Hints:
Layout: E1 10-11, E2 28-29, E3 42-44, H1 45-52, H2 59-67, E4 72-73, E5 76-77, E6 84-86, E7 90-93, E8 98-105, E9 109-114, E10 122-132, E11 138-142, E12 147-150, E13 169-173, E14 178-183, E15 190-193, E16 202-209, E17 220-224, E18 230-234, E19 238-242
Antiparallel strand pairs: 1-2, 3-6, 4-5, 4-7, 7-8, 8-9, 10-11, 10-13, 11-12, 13-14, 15-16, 15-19, 16-17, 17-18
Amino acid sequence: xxxxxxxxxxxxxxxxxxxxxxxxxxxxxxxxxxxxxxxxxxxxxxxxxxxxxxxxxxxxxxxxxxxxxxxxxxxxxxxxxxxxxxxxxxxxxxxxxxxxxxxxxxxxxxxxxxxxxxxxxxxxxxxxxxxxxxxxxxxxxxxxxxxxxxxxxxxxxxxxxxxxxxxxxxxxxxxxxxxxxxxxxxxxxxxxxxxxxxxxxxxxxxxxxxxxxxxxxxxxxxxxxxxxxxxxxxxxxxxxxxxxxxxxxxxx
Length: 252
């Protein structure tokens, strides 16, 4: 892929390959704003409204819809047509009763599925890091750029946050970020592949091979899908999504 960082503009030929745009029809396309997702793991809101969902024929029409405050991302009205929409984000247009979630998708890397209205305020996020902040409280840094603060009564013994580990997942309510359920990364849990050649596949974790000298995120993970087929990826490429079945709709 061509270099796409630095400039305020983005040529269509250099855009991420999974964007559903015509590469040679025009020279330029929308470059996402700085935000919760990197440029190669997101789709700008205008392209979603126009090219993905088909609710506008032109960029001008799409901008009008967005500027009018009709589009919500994770429960928040977004008027920036360059806003980056990425993994597990929920895009809603209540006026037409449309609610979709963007998930890892085989062959497309990132695509949407329709979800029921009562799931539009739910989202699964992965814990990327855990740090201690002022007052001894614990801050969880999440995959989509969010931060959730876990209040600790006794900083010397932070029992409230001891159970949270990196690469665990949280089911949260959006936009309040209230934690509904904590999903530990363990053998037997259901996980979704979010990157690599197996992107979009869902399976139970059969084994985690932590090899000496390698970072934990590079550990080899064996998964088994619903048909009994086993496949491998690395720990950094999976997100735990439930026990026997996903906690939210992840398949069309």
